[in-house]
Design brief:
Blueprint: E1 5-6, H1 8-24, H2 37-43, E2 50-56, H3 61-70, H4 78-84, E3 90-98, E4 102-110
Parallel strand pairs: 1-3
Antiparallel strand pairs: 2-4, 3-4
Length: 117
């Protein structure tokens, strides 16, 4: 597992999702416009290859990571898998208020950027 470097586009993409879901109280990986992670990141000019973790109800970094590691009620343990996935080298994080769960945190992950010719 490589260390993750901060990525502005992924942070903006995560922030877009917090800004969309927070006030509405929606949950999940799709925004109110139906867009998923790949669509949001592409709209910001990034590569659509990566993944996303979302935590609801926890307001410290420690609590968020513990919740994602334990990954209760997620059959495939997808959040845990994302935390340890080989190949992710970049990440962007945004946290904010959520109308139902008080807090939410989005972590968007990316692979090595695609080389353009």
């Amino acid at each position: 597992m490589a260390p993750l470097s901060p990525d502005l586009i992924l942070a903006l993409t995560a922030g877009d999702h917090v800004a969309d879901q927070g006030p509405s109280g929606f949950i999940g990986h799709y925004g109110s416009d139906g867009w998923d992670f790949a669509t949001r990141v592409t709209r910001r000019g990034g590569d659509p290859y990566g993944g996303e973790n979302i935590s609801y109800g926890y307001d410290t970094a420690r609590e968020v990571i513990i919740q994602l590691l334990v990954d209760d009620n997620i059959a495939d343990r997808g959040h845990r898998v994302n935390l340890f996935r080989d190949g992710y080298v970049r990440a962007g994080v945004s946290c904010g208020p959520h109308a139902v769960f008080n807090h939410m945190c989005v972590i968007d992950y990316g692979y090595e950027p695609v080389k353009r010719r």
